[in-house]
Amino acid sequence: MTNAQPSTLPDWLRHQAQHRPHAVALRHKRLGAWHALSWQDVATAVEHLAAGLAQHGFAAGDALLLVSHPREEALLLSLAAQWNGGVAIPLDPQLAGDTLRPVLAQIAPRFAFAEDDSQVDRLLAHEGLRVVDANPRNLAPHPHPVVIGYRTLAVQREGGFASVAQPHDDAFAFVRLDADGHLVEQRLPHARLVREAQQLAATEKLSPYDEAFAARAFAAASQARYLIAPWVLSGFRLNFPESLATRDNDRRELAPTLVAGTRETYARVAQLVDDRLPAARSWRRRLISRAQRRQGGPLVRALSWWLIARPLRAVIGFSRTHAALVIGPPLDEKTAALFEALRVDVRAWPDAGDWRRVEPRRQAAVPQRHAADSGLQDPTQQSAQQPAY
């Protein structure tokens, strides 16, 4: 008798841990060195964190706010909240105070994760919030009674700690201010994330042997749709850079096979390419320019590949990339021509969402159900859409 197919992100996490326990699931860089966690390590850590959250009162339907850049602790804790039937709400850590206040007032989460002392202090200004402190520098525990150290949160329970997540539960929620200054949110249930991840994996031919790079803002909905959910379902390796300042060097070192970014991401990388090229009158510049304009015969194309395009792909960390995704609006003409000359096929995927106005003081203990949601569009059928961020 075969088991039913996993239907939530925690279910898929357990599936990976059972079938590929020793394969590397997650890598993060600290002080210049890469540290790896297997699928068994990740599943065990998430289960123990979920038990710790439950011990502190986190229950099904509760919201966990994550004020953090991309980092493994935020990812594991978001999965732990979902393990308990809760929703993870990533926020941009650079969010201004006048925006953070209405978010906390209207979303009314009971728990939050902060990546450093400055974020802990910002969150402590709001009553009724328990704060999980990442404490990345291993300092003395924060003295405030509502602060919980991340490293002390995990709890191991005899017999394990079963997940209560259901397919219709919201896994992630994302919030922003609209043009009129109203707080709006987009909620992504497990069922939708699983369905979209399966479609993405089939279209982009993702496998457990792929290597992905998580350098985009953790607070972007596309991070959940195009990296986190596909990672759990496909079982590839997910890598976190040491910081946003080192992301280009870290990507070049890893040479990921899956890259997901916005048009601004690719424009910034294109500028790195442009900076590496010699002066406008040089033969190398003229050769790549002819390739961008699709000029020249087989000899010109071969020379531009071996002498310029191939080395430049290695410089920007795209030497092995077979799935290059631009989320939201497609590349501008100049950037698209450059990546085409580098023989990187950048495919556009949508970043639209069902944004709904947040009502003040919504009760976090009653999760919002969205019975109808739109499926992921095939990039070949995508119509022009406005970016969500």
Can you put this structure into words, describing what you see?
This protein is of the alpha/beta class and 389 residues long. Among the domains are: 9-190, Rossmann fold, CATH 3.40.50; 262-349, no CATH class. The protein is 39% helix and 18% strand. The chain has 13 helices and 15 strands. It has helices at 9-19, 39-55, 72-83, 97-107, 117-124, 150-153, 190-204, 221-234, 247-254, 263-276, 283-292, 298-315, 333-341; strands spanning 24-30, 33-38, 63-67, 87-91, 111-114, 130-133, 147-149, 170-177, 183-189, 211-213, 237-240, 258-261, 323-327, 346-349, 356-357. The strands form four sheets. A five-stranded parallel beta sheet has the order 4-3-5-6-7, sandwiched between helices. A four-stranded mixed beta sheet has the order 2-1-11-10. A three-stranded antiparallel beta sheet has the order 8-9-15. A hairpin with a 5-residue loop joins strand 8 and strand 9. The longest helix has 18 residues, at 298-315. Residues 362-375 and 378-389 have low confidence and may be disordered.
